[in-house]
Amino acid sequence: MNRTTVYATTTGIPVRQRPCAGAREQAKSPAPAVRDLRDRPGGGPRTLRFGPRDLAVVTGLPGSGKSTLMRRTVPGRRVDSQDARDRWAARLPAALPYAFYRPLVRLAHYAGLRRALASGEGVVVHDCGTQPWVRAWLAREARRRGGTLHLVLLDVPADTARRGQRERGRGVSRYAFHRHRTATARLLDAVERGESPAGCGSVVLLDRASADGLKRIEFAT
Q: How many CB atoms lie within 10 A of CB 76?
């Protein structure tokens, strides 16, 4: 049996559904289950657990801590484009700009994602937020396997995200950051209005403090 409800194991309480803006909108697109874990320093959950055939997408601004969160909390299958970029960067001259081998990184990332999905296991996926077709692909795959797509959204101020980029020694252009910021703000506004992100069955909102408090993102067996 696939349990698609998100659980925070410190409380054992499933995510709660946030009311929609109106009955007509709710009838057209049911609101996802939303758990807002922001502004809960020290009191947030330690574990997020999803159903065994579910998929989880971690999204947010560049530098918000998506890759760090995934490396630290996901003991099972995870697919992060940053890992693909690091593998290619290790093979190539350090002076070569990323723009020259970005297509190779994307090809390797999506090939790795396809392999992970073919396993039939739960997978946590890094989402840059500016490629809606990727989330649509994951939603279709979740439905095909009888599971649910869950969105984990890191809500981090732009200045904090830029600082995170500087600390890791890698950044995106001002234009690219603006695109990411616009996409993330639009997604966050929609969730806070009770509008369902396409294909998502639940949403977990994290700020930096609640993300730091998480210990595991896992799938039930």
A: 14
